[in-house]
Design a protein that fits this description.
alpha+beta, seven-stranded antiparallel β-sheet, four-stranded antiparallel β-sheet, 7 helices, 14 strands, 33% helix, 29% strand
Length: 264
């Protein structure tokens, strides 16, 4: 599968009288726009091809699904009032765009050196990131968005799967509700997990749909966590960071793991 074939495949599956396609040869990106609104979604073809190498048809189906749902979410009026229960925080990499393609700044907060907190309005099958224009139109204050989003996030379930490797324990949260990584903001949850950890507690959010908490009891555990995090990062639909974090004194500190040595 090359870019030309992938582009044709996506255009065929996403074609509609209401949509237009724009291909950037230099960046190898395909943009799908709604003709009426001029708003659209840009996808990087190399990333989809890389996933296709492993997942085949599933990689294409996922891309088509999320593009279609994303375009649908962009049409029509969006309201915050009356939908307070649908506002959630989402974790993104610091390399994630700070504004929408139309030039409107997103509303976000700093989190760590590797991550930011954006805020989203859940629309069922997809969600829309909240921007400052929407805040202004709705008359919402930034503190109101933060408090509402964090309250809703704390209400989400958190059922971990446990795995033991080389004397270390790894806990995985993968509910696929779009907010698995967001649970890293739940201080009560982190405190509960901290009480279970006998060694050093480390946390990873390699992509949007997974939260990994590790009970590191020997140096091998750091190597395993690094390999695991990189693998999840490479396969995630919305990658965040391949780095892990130490959790000490209620603070997150990025750690760089090289071979069998742990360095901060």
């Amino acid at each position: 599968m090359d870019s030309k074939k992938m582009r044709r495949e996506l255009e065929e599956r996403l074609k509609s009288p209401e949509r237009t396609f724009l291909y950037d040869r230099e960046k190898d990106q395909l943009r799908i726009e709604d003709k009426q609104t001029g708003r659209g979604i840009t996808v990087a073809l190399p990333g989809i091809i890389a996933k296709w190498q492993e997942q085949k048809e599933k990689a294409i189906e996922e891309t088509v699904y999320y593009v279609a749902e994303g375009l649908s979410a962009m049409t029509g009026d969006v309201k915050l009032s009356g939908k307070e229960k649908n506002i959630f925080p989402v974790i993104r990499s610091t390399s994630f765009p700070e504004e929408a393609e139309e030039g409107v700044p997103f509303f976000f907060d700093s989190h760590t050196a590797e991550t930011r907190i954006y805020y989203a309005l859940d629309m069922g099958k997809t969600y829309r990131l909240i921007d400052k224009k929407l805040l202004e139109l709705e008359g919402w204050k930034e503190t109101q968005i933060r408090e509402t989003a964090l309250f809703n996030m704390r209400s989400l379930s958190a059922k971990f799967k446990e795995d033991q490797v080389a004397g270390n324990i790894f806990y995985f949260l993968n509910s696929n509700d779009g907010y698995d990584a967001s649970r890293i903001l739940n201080e009560r949850l982190l405190g509960e997990m901290k009480s279970k950890v006998e060694g050093t507690m480390a946390i990873a959010v390699p992509h949007q749909d997974v939260l990994i908490i590790a009970d590191i009891r020997n140096h091998t555990g750091y190597d395993i966590l690094a390999q695991m995090t990189m693998s999840f990062f490479a396969s995630g639909r919305v990658p965040i960071t391949a780095l892990s974090f130490l959790y000490e004194d209620n603070e997150l500190e990025p750690i760089f793991i090289l071979g069998k040595n742990k360095t901060k």
